[in-house]
Amino acid sequence: MSRANPDQERRNFERQDFLVACGWQNAQVSPLVDDASARKYFRLERRHDTALLMDFPPSAIHVDPHGIYDDPERPASVAPVLHTTELFERAGWRVPEIQASDEKRGLVLIEDFGDITFTEALQAGAMMDGTGQDGLYLRAVEQLITLHRFCDGGGMDGSGLVQYEPENFRRMLASFKIDYLPLIIADDAKRMAAITAFDQLLDDVLPLCWQAGEVIIHRDYHVDNLMLVENGDGGDDCGIIDFQDAAIATRPYDLASLLRDVRHDIGTDLETRMKQFYLAAFPDIDRSDFETSYVATSMVRNFRILGRFGWLAIKAGKTRYFDFIPRCWELILRGAATDLPVLQDWVDSHIPLSARVAPSLTNPASHEAEQ
Description:
The chain is α+β, with helices and mostly antiparallel strands and 371 residues long. The protein has two domains: 11-110, Phosphorylase Kinase, domain 1 (2-Layer Sandwich); 118-370, Alpha-Beta Complex (Aminoglycoside 3'-phosphotransferase, Chain: A, domain 2). It contains 13 helices and eleven strands. It is globular and about 60 Å long.
């Protein structure tokens, strides 16, 4: 009989020891589907109670989410989860309650919001009558309005969050150059020409991201991280999860994350109406400045995502995210011809249409024939 991995045995013991300390040692434990991070989640069930166990061992490989370090791989920590939970509670968001934690061992017991994400609700609505999409996105945008009013009222003061500058975005986009571009431009000279022009593009565009000001951002705000949570009054609240990478950054960041999500295409009509709904809550914001900032921030987000997809394929063997690559390029270019022509020019010059698809790990040069 083969013996379990000693490191895994040690981690299993640490989890069980933590559950004993929390009084959940007799709970039924079920692993939940993992995501693109090193965090693992387990649902605990005992009689009529449930909770979630977050397992984020300090030994895990964690990519610095904020572009602080030139070397992005950092020790994992649950400290940001504990800090941002308290902050967003003060801001008026419905976030999972922390029931117990062991920061040193990277274990946190949190409230279980159940399984009904906005994604699930949208799929159910589509199967019934298709009327739920607008309402759910309105609720999501309302939560951003709540947070941004909190910020405008002084909520960012003493928040303890990383405050982004253009250099943070530049470091985040290093992975796009290192991990993604080699997958689609195998020729060294062509790739170096694209990188040189890309760096100049960033010089021109990154400052524009701040034209509409800054707020606290969730940083991964989309329908997979929004949930319908029973509130005890016969209705449900908009529950928000996976916010541990919060920072202070450009105002449109989370709105672009929600409305230009590579996994969920809502169309340009709904996107426009949701932006108008948001801007109606902040009449002092210059619309032109906001639109430029929105498109520039969307560019940053989607180039970062492409870099992440490349990193996951190379470092973790996860290529399933390649299916989203064509949509990444569509979102990068949406509005660029009008609001960011320098972006349109860079893509047209260096990334042919044939390269804006899922790359081949075995033959990255296959896209270069049309360059």
